[in-house]
Amino acid sequence: MIAIIDYEAGNLTSVLRAVRRLGFDAVITQNANVIDCAERLIFPGVGAAGAAMEVLRRTGLDELVTTQVQQKKKPFLAICIGIQIIFEHSDEDDVDCLGLLQGNVKRFADNQLKIPQIGWNQVYHVRDHPIFHEVPDQTELYFVNSYYCEPADRSVVIGETDYGIRFTSAVAKDNMIATQFHLEKSGPVGLRMLKNFCEWQP
Amino acid sequence: MLTKRIIPCLDVRAGKVTKGIAFKDNVDIGDPVAMAKKYYEEGADEIVFYDITASSDERDIMIDVVSRTAEEIYIPYSVGGGIRNFDDMRSALLAGAEKVSVNSAAVLNPDIIAEGAKAFGSQCIVLSMDVKKVDVSDEIPSGYEIFINGGRKAMGIDAIDWCRCGERLGAGELVVNSIDADGAKTGYEINLTRMIAETVGIPVIASGGGGAPQHLYEVFTDGKADAAIVASMIHFGTYTIPEIKYYLHDRGLPIRMNYH
To answer: Could you tell me the end-to-end alpha-carbon distance of chain A, in angstroms, rounded to an integer?
Structure first.
């Protein structure tokens, strides 16, 4: 069973529907026991870093998620705001985040670019990874973001995208994968990547 | 590079897709969920449902369409037309829509934009507007005026001012619908679209008038639009989405081509 972690951030049901459509058993939950029983975790969501961290701290999900990822080594997929709050600090709301990966989250510079970035943009495969199985390099995937992560350790970067600058759009380390783009809204290719995660044995 | 989006719009009345000319004379042309699925499979970058009915029992039919669509398509889609207040926004988003668009309700009560943006995030809130060309005046210096109620009521608001206001209140995107061009299939209102795209820092979606792939090329280049709504030109089989995409891609525009 896959636990989709509910930290009150945006549209989680679209992830649930997509995962179920692919034939996997999944549930949206905040419950510590359910999360502890799950074999893998998805950490989706839209919204602001400050509000997300406030909910995670208030519910104790911050420590629970950290334990599940770092000690129990469960396969873990973070999407959109998820990729941002697994780093150490976000400039959005100037908030300290989970620190599962080293690095910070910055805002796109305001020159000439529309912010947020909304739409389909290409993802360059920087490094091969099972999440990219049967996904062509430079395929367009769906983004909605004003901020992007800057990993301290470049070796975690698996995908990059151009939006004024070339920014990190996907990272992976050990049992963790995180994407800035929305797999659940990226058409058949996005569903393929979700399936790759659901079948992934790190 | 961020691609130019091609967005089919399905006008829905009593659970059926319908299409009119210049906001009148509607004919039913199909089932909204089936049509959304077909366009999804053909490579639409997003889908818009526009509820052209007014009564509240028909609103429930629309929510049912939205939630059945969520089982079928895995790209963003938005709902507009019947969004009058915060609860309407909430129920459309809960049913599975990625975004909601507000039009007349926002003109009458601009705070709804800020309320929606605060609760759901700016990326969920699309400000849609119906615009008509008028004589330049002190009140309407751009010569483009905002209308409501399906193009029937002039509001004495300049379109450019309204776009600035919408952006400031927290709208994440703007849909600019030209009443003059709607359904005529003679091309988008390029001048209006470009004026707005150069004024705001959020994406601008051109609407009304698309009749041929060349019209999309013009509005993406001269009109500086980030996305364009298509309706009649694909609903009646005149063109398909892949035909439009190949046309634009062949002419060097960034278009999402890998959608299988």
So the answer is: 16
